[in-house]
Amino acid sequence: MRKGRKEVEVTDKVGDVSMASAPFYDENMYILNVKNDLDAKASEAIPSVEGLTAATKYPIPPSSVLKQLAIAIESGRQTNSMKDFVASSRGSSPAREKAGLSLSSVKALVLREKEDKLTSEFSSDEKVVYLINSLFDQEGEFLKRNSDPEETFISSLPRDIHGAPLESLVVKLAEVIGNFKTLREMSLFWSRVVDELRKHWSEEKHLPGIPPDDIPDLKSCLLYQQFQVINCCISRKKRHIIATESLDTMVMEANSNALESANYTGKIPTGPLLYARLRTGELVLRLGADCPSGDLTLLETGEPAYSPVTQEGPLLTEDLIKETEEFVLRTGSVGAGCSQLLSDMQAFKAANPGCILEDFVRWYSPPDWSESEGSTEDRDSSYGGESMSTRGQLSLRMQKEGNLWRELWETSKPVPAVKQAPLYDEDLAVEDILDAFEDIQPSELFGQLFVSLLSFGFAIAETMLYGDLDLSKLFNDCKEYIVTTCQSDRFNEKIDELVQMYETVEKMLLNPDEALKMKHMEESTMTTDESKRRFSTGEPKHRFKRLSHIFGGKDKLLTRPVCKNEVNDEETQIRHSFSSFFDSKSSLFSKKPPKPGNLYPAEQPLSLESDRTVI
Fold first, then answer.
1. pLDDT digits (tens, 9 = 90+) for 573-592
2. What Gene Ontology molecular-function terms does this entry list (predicted)?
């Protein structure tokens, strides 16, 4: 009986175990566990400001951040835009009915619904909001490392490999995005960054970590150039508002009884307003005058000639330069040059009442005007009926029938620059950039962030390792390799090796003794032929392979080459090739004259000779 009872008891226990394990196969419980796991993973995928700030105690960003960007470059090759990159990880449509679905189908549907929820909640997540606010903080203290800026900023490495300046918004953005654990979160955060860029533009707030009024630096990456355009356009809009208000105030003052009284008495009124006397003796207000143009005087009235405030030229990033160059070479159009010339003529007429075409040519294109002998000495007493030929003459091309200059002069009106139709539409330019950010190719975006962060880490390490003969030699080898690789067409094939170079430098900073030990061990095993190998082969030295094998792990980061980077870092080649078209048009263009006053202080040095172009 006891034995039977024991058997019953054992049988009961087995039954209990089977019942206890039943909930494991319950679909509702399984779905609940899936949701909880996704919540936990989503929370872990978003880096915290505190964690990023704590990481700044290390001399350079961790190599894991660079690895994540490298993985994103490889994954981004499969999609054409960031929008597609986000959508590519989504599951099937939620319109499917749940009834009759298998457990695996229910799981996929739950994942799909949860991902959509994560996407909608991502922008409002507290960590994300805090990250965005810190990244765009005007103080610029976020992710700032305790390095001496006077020493680190002298490095030319970021410009050598087409990266971004140290401590710039691009570098900080690269470090933040590289700290996300999933590609989906990386792309969603970029979308949130674009929203913040739109907000700054609409509120006319400058982007932090970007100069407020610098023209695009063609030696930096395209992303940094576009950030520069946004800031520069904000500055231009602010200056345009101030200039317009100033001109309106000037006109209101001139409409008072002062001008009427001056015309009655024949005396030029004193004060901030500038007037010019016509041949009839009438006083006319100068509009948009900047400053006297040396000792130049108007031929018919003898009044001092003033350089006008002119419109600023377009802000050209490297991609726009290429597009414009291709358009000009394909169509032969010089429309931009004509528009600039007409604008400058109108501004000159407004600033110099009573002027003639010859006055404009003398100011704008001195080579197209020749003074007659003795004309300078007799100028003050020879106005009125003296013929033009006794004071000087235009060049032969200017005297030809149907000359474009004369046609434009006859159609131009005296209009100050601030009242003219803009030659460069800041609103349209920035909106185009922001729209391009939404559709940017993932591999292109992450590639620029990768190079910017790579150059940032190497620039800091270069300063810290300076003076250490042993480590400096090893560092210079690594630096030479990344410069050669980033400037070559093989950059996209060498992402893995670039990460390994970064890991080597990271080891040199964090554990210099071990780095030196491994360096000496490797040198002792190298053959004479191996020690003489150069980077011209396109392969890292054997020492690099050994160091990266020890410091960075055995496995390769990537399995196949990433997409080709289309950024050209040769500024002189871009500008020279674009300008060469106009140099060949000697019959249309000539040298630029002395630079007249500008509507705004910072002026874009155009590749197009349309900036004060002689046509």
1. 444 444 443 344 333 334 34
2. GTPase activator activity
